[in-house]
Design goal:
101 residues; mainly alpha; 4 helices
Length: 101
């Protein structure tokens, strides 16, 4: 799995874990980071928008990973080591490159 795919799951999960629970805290963080003050209403809307984007990103990333495993023919217990041991792709039954029959 590439670093990009790993980050696609970790970043939204990190945002969800580190998101302040209080809109006033979010307004204070925004004021410290940008120098722009937010009202409580704007901070509440911003908080819900950030949460929605993080949840959608996490669900999208996990769905892509699940579909990739499903298309490759692996079940949860199978691995690349098992593929090498058997010498063929489990779903298609074809020989791997470099294997002499």
């Amino acid at each position: 799995m590439s670093l990009r795919r790993i980050a696609a799951c970790i970043v939204p999960g990190g945002v969800l874990a580190l998101m302040p629970k209080c809109p006033l805290c979010l307004a204070a963080y925004a004021a410290m980071a940008t120098g722009v003050g937010l009202s409580v209403f704007a901070a509440t809307i911003l908080r819900y928008a950030i949460l929605a984007v993080a949840v959608v990103g996490l669900v999208y990333s996990l769905t892509r990973i699940k579909n990739r495993f499903r298309r490759s023919g692996y079940s949860c217990g199978e691995s690349m080591a098992q593929e090498r041991r058997h010498g063929c792709h489990p779903a298609r039954g074809e020989r791997l490159a470099g294997d002499e029959a």
